[in-house]
Amino acid sequence: MKPSARITAYAFLVLTSAFWGSNAVVARGLLNTMSPATLALFRWGVAVLVLVPFVYKERAAIMRALTTQWRLMLLLALLGFAPNAYLSYLGLRGSTAIFMGIVNSIVPVMVVLIMALWKRRIPQRHEGIGLALSFIGVFVVLTRGDFSHLLQLRISGFEIIVLAGLMVWAVYTVLLLYRPVYLSLTAFVFLAGVLGLFLIAPAVIFDWAQNGIPRLSLREIALASYIALVPTLLAMLLFGYAVAKVGPVHSGIFTHLIPLFSALFAVLFIHERLHFFHAVAFVLIGGGAILCCIKPDTMLSSDSTSSR
Questions:
Q1: Which strand (E) or helix (H) includes residue 93?
Q2: Cβ distance 94 to 158 under 8 Å?
Q3: pLDDT digits (tens, 9 = 90+) for 39-66
Q4: Residue-number span of the structural domain to which 203 is assigned
Q5: Which residue, 76, 80, 10, 79, is CA-closest to 250?
Q6: pTM
Q7: pLDDT at residue 155 tops 70
Q8: What is the pLDDT of residues 175-221, one digit of tens each?
Q9: What angle do helix axes 82-92 and 3-30 make, rounded to 10 degrees?
Q10: Distance of CA 244 to CAs 58, 197, 250, Å?
Q11: CA-CA distances (angstroms) from residue 196 to 73, 74, 78, 193?
């Protein structure tokens, strides 16, 4: 793989983390007035509609995937698209920001463990050190440099749901290597997005039967559209490209940047003060992610898994 392609993949992973960091902030506010099912439906419904003109020319390849690899596509749609969003929103509605931020750092650890069990891949020393540094950095930014805040954590049903959603996402990250190679990233996201909408249809119908069809305000539509177009659509495309180029382990490591970006967005948009511990966390998290990616892993970053 050319060095420029690897650099591009890492840049995309940084952008993806920033978009996902904003997603948590915007979604948490919307969940005060929108149900998890409605938000998941709106998020992926808008994303799929936007993709229609871009994937029309690939309709033959989409039908091929739907008829010959429908089991794999259903599995990927279940693990990484609207159903995963619904599960995450269920947990986010009743969990705390500090818990959400901390457990996000578990994703790369889960990916490393899945790869170790599935492909008998032993994590390399530099990956272990990088993971540890990033994990410490996540704790620094979330506790504002005071680790005594961790003593206030309590596990609830909502937090268990959050953990389950992150575990599902880790499995999706690994299985993304096996997506149909004849589908472009855009076509893949479109097809999996459509299938995901069908999978959450029962939850949406039940929610609307219980609470009525929601009437969304212009503010809700605008914010939900942002989630659909940027943290969902654009981020999924960037993440899919990066996984194909550098592998699931290195891609998963960059989720350590999500809590950092969330903190930065809080400073920029809700006028919180920037403190020294933010700089410390940035060095630890960013340094750890870079350390993990110094030595490419041929098994996890081979071009044979890319869409080309």
A1: none
A2: yes
A3: 999 999 999 999 999 999 999 999 999 9
A4: 3-305
A5: 10
A6: 0.77
A7: no
A8: 988 899 999 988 999 999 999 999 999 999 999 999 999 999 999 99
A9: 50
A10: 20, 25, 11
A11: 9, 8, 6, 5
Which residue type, as a one-letter code, is found at position 299?
M
Task: Classify residue 179 by its DSSP letter.
Answer: S
Cα angle at 125 between 99 and 133, to 5 degrees? 35
Find all residues with CB under 8 Å of 212, minimum gap 6, and list them: none
Burial of residue 38 (number of CB atoms within 10 Å: 0-12, 13-18, 19+): buried
Given this model, what pLDDT does residue 263 score? 77
92-117 pLDDT per residue, tens: 888 765 566 666 766 766 777 787 77
Cα–Cα distances in angstroms (integers) from residue 120 to residues 49, 96, 99, 128, 295, in the given order: 41, 35, 31, 16, 19
Query: Total domain count for the chain?
Result: 1
Q: Is the confidence at residue 304, as pLDDT, over 60? A: no
Indicate the angle between helix axes 82-92 and 36-55, nearest 10 degrees.
150
Pick from 25, 44, 8: nearest CA to 198 = 44
Give me the numbers of helices (H) and strands (E) for the chain, helices first please: 16, 0
Tokens of 302: 């081979």
